[in-house]
């Protein structure tokens, strides 16, 4: 039997996926002004040093957080928030084309 960790577990960094957000929501976020990034199918090991919000224009990926046998799957039309500190493997089955934005670091803005 598989067990699922509690969603509020402080030891897990969870990925948030918003499926098919409205055009008004995308406009409010300013998605079209964000930089773009893409990659071909393959496996990529990534570490997120800052929280990333991204919107997939095309593609499909399964993200496996390091040390977990579970994965989060998302694709074209999804708005995704990836937490700071997450180390993971992206298993890209359909080439990715996305808009992305990293959260500003609060530690660098103190005066």
UniProtKB/TrEMBL annotation:
Pfam families: Cupin_3
InterPro entries with a match to the protein in the record: RmlC-like_jellyroll, RmlC_Cupin_sf, UGlyAH_Cupin_dom
Protein source organism: Hibiscus trionum (Flower of an hour)
SUPFAM superfamilies in alphabetical order: RmlC-like cupins
The organism's taxonomic lineage, starting at the top: Eukaryota, Viridiplantae, Streptophyta, Embryophyta, Tracheophyta
PANTHER family: OS02G0620400 PROTEIN, OS04G0445200 PROTEIN
Record's protein name: (S)-ureidoglycine aminohydrolase cupin domain-containing protein
Domain spans labelled (S)-ureidoglycine aminohydrolase cupin: 27-100
Gene3D superfamilies documented for this protein: Jelly Rolls
């Amino acid at each position: 039997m598989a067990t699922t960790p509690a969603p509020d577990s402080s030891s897990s960094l969870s990925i948030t996926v918003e499926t098919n957000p409205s055009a008004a929501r995308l406009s409010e976020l300013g998605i079209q002004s964000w930089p773009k990034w893409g990659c071909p199918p393959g496996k990529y090991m990534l570490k997120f040093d800052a929280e990333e919000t991204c919107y997939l224009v095309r593609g499909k990926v399964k993200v496996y957080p390091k040390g977990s046998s579970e994965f989060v799957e998302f694709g074209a039309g999804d708005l995704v928030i990836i937490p700071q500190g997450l180390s993971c493997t992206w298993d890209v089955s359909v080439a990715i084309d996305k808009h992305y934005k990293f959260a500003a670091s609060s530690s660098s803005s103190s005066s």
